[in-house]
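haha ok so turns out i had the wrong file open the whole time. this is the CORRECT one, sorry everyone. sequence first:
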Amino acid sequence: MAKNYQDLKKEVWEEEKCAGCGACIAICPADAFVFSPGDFHPKHTEYCKEASDGVPCGACYEVCPRVIPAPSDRPLMGESIRLLSAKAGFEVPGKQSGGAVTALLYDALEARHIDAVVTVTEDPWTHRPSSAIITTSAVLITQAGSRYNWWVPLMAALKEAVITKKYRNIAVVGVPCVVQALKRIRQSDNALLRPFRSSIRLVIGLFCTECFDYQTLVEGKLLRERKIETWKIRKFEVKGALDITLGDGTTVHLPLSEVAECVRPGCAVCTDFTALDADISAGAVGSEAGYTTLISRTPVGEGFLDHAIQAGHLVAGPKVDQKAIKRLAEKKMKRMR
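then structure:
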């Protein structure tokens, strides 16, 4: 019998290693997983095809990014075909840095290389995040801006995209734990994962030091302690510290040590800063203001990147400061338990 949710519970949930990526929710054929706000791991209905009925499954264990310890000998920046800074070749309101990820996805949607984007959106008033499926370039632009400061089980939306709406050329944008789960899906020979495996066309990984719990940080640290109303917040950015830009242009600087209690427990075991298993990795670190650092890692990623540049939707910028990226990557690598 393959490993199932009981093994996942013992090896990952009870050890506080859960990434909260939502992969188990997305692929469970029995819809047995539920992830509620404030939870650090999913809840299970206790019905499992494998454990309850002896029907071969094991899909949830198969896709979990935390069942295998992270290798400690990988290059800090991983494999790459091209490293560059870039920005959108058109106006992107609400962009986080250079708007390069939005530009890449815009180009892919316009060229019909993809038919859907699984990503994170947020309520503009409260900044509360949710996973979403975007299928038009117009909606994509209105939703631009990184929401990955907050935890959300992003991949929960993948089931709707693949199984319900039957999109077959999907781009997924996520932090390293999401990217790791997608890699496991792509490499698995589990028949239950075939629809997901064949539908994921592009994976864009975002640089990430850690993800914050919305309730603890926004409703606790910022609203109750700092008296910062959510509607006054324009942008969050993590570059060795948490910088919060307000609507009047002022910035609130919070050392990561001050917001450590707001970080989700599962982040403590993650050592991947630059999303090493993505087709394209992206982040603000290493690039000048107004630009995004991009790392194409696979031929697929290079193809999407090259097309966006040739179409003028993406514009290359100044040289990337690799030392700045490696410095943060090394710092995260040393957090391994």
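Residues 5-63 form a domain with the Alpha-Beta Plaits fold (CATH 3.30.70).
again sry for the mixup
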